[in-house]
């Protein structure tokens, strides 16, 4: 069994971020520290405006904090130039968005191919795992909300990323489909030994994750 240091995939170390709000400086994140290990699915909960989305954007190399480090498999990404961020996101990070962000003019199969030329065998394997085989030639307009979300899951995993970041993945789904979507994320994370972070307001799916963190006043605390 790997020790904790070896199995750490993503580490957020002493990250803080603020912005100017008129005459005042508003602190969004305050010295946030968290490590996510291989095969670990964590959720971050908290009220709107507490810093959850900012945290996710920093973890996904969409934003940089004022201070602190983002370390992926032991490499400090904070030292990378911004022109390198696109390649980092493409090769190492899988995103699942609340509104799917599927391209309307591409079929499910093409959605997976457009991210990165994927191995056809891998596409078929994911399609079977996520129950997509019957809709691979369908366009988003021909899919149900749950089907679109499953295609988004497949797209996030198709590049075999180190980290999965899910932003309110149940927001556009009813409770049953939302729970099924999170179950599928958990299944893929555990099966493929990935690290995953889900930002959510949906307390009904928290039993499906390994660790829950509360974001409040820019600080992150483990729940329970």
Automatic annotation (TrEMBL):
Gene Ontology molecular function:
ATP binding
Query: Has the keyword ATP-binding been applied to this entry?
Result: yes
Bilayer topology: Peripheral membrane protein
Note the Gene3D superfamilies from the entry.
Answer: P-loop containing nucleotide triphosphate hydrolases
Task: Give the SMART domains listed for this entry.
Answer: AAA (SM00382)
Its domain of life reads Bacteria
* Family matches, as InterPro entries: AAA+_ATPase, ABC_transporter-like_ATP-bd, ABC_transporter-like_CS, ABC_transpr_LolD-like, MacB-like_ATP-bd, P-loop_NTPase
UniProt key word Isomerase: no
Pfam family membership, one: ABC_tran
Q: Where in the cell is it found?
A: Cell membrane
**Which residues does the UniProt record annotate as the domain ABC transporter?**
10-224
Its keywords, alphabetically, are: ATP-binding, Cell membrane, Membrane, Nucleotide-binding, Transport
This protein's assembly is summarised as:
The complex is composed of two ATP-binding proteins (HrtA), two transmembrane proteins (HrtB) and a solute-binding protein.
Q: Which family does it belong to?
A: Belongs to the ABC transporter superfamily. HrtA family.
Its biological purpose is as follows:
Part of the ABC transporter complex hrt involved in hemin import. Responsible for energy coupling to the transport system.
- Extract the PANTHER family matched here: HEMIN IMPORT ATP-BINDING PROTEIN HRTA-RELATED, IMPORT ATP-BINDING PROTEIN
Q: What is this protein called?
A: Putative hemin import ATP-binding protein HrtA
């Amino acid at each position: 069994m790997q020790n904790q240091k070896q199995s750490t995939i993503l580490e957020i170390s002493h990250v803080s971020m603020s912005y100017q709000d008129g005459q005042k400086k508003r602190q969004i994140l305050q010295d946030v520290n968290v490590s996510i290990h291989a095969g670990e699915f964590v959720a971050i909960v908290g009220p709107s405006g507490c810093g959850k989305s900012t945290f996710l954007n920093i973890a996904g190399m969409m934003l940089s904090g004022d201070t602190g480090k983002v370390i992926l498999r032991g490499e400090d990404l904070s030292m990378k130039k911004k022109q390198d961020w696109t390649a980092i996101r493409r090769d190492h990070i899988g995103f699942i968005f609340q509104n799917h962000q599927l391209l309307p003019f591409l079929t499910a199969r093409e959605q997976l191919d457009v991210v990165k030329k994927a191995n056809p065998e891998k596409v078929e394997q994911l399609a079977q795992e996520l129950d997509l085989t019957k809709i691979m030639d369908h366009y988003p307009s021909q899919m149900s909300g749950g089907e679109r979300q499953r295609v988004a899951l497949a797209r996030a995993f198709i590049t075999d990323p180190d980290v999965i970041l899910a932003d309110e993945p149940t927001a556009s789904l009813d409770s049953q489909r939302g729970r099924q979507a999170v179950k599928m994320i958990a299944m893929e994370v555990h099966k493929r030994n990935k690290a995953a972070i889900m930002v959510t307001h949906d307390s009904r799916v928290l039993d499906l994750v390994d660790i829950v963190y509360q974001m409040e006043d820019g600080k992150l605390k483990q729940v329970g």
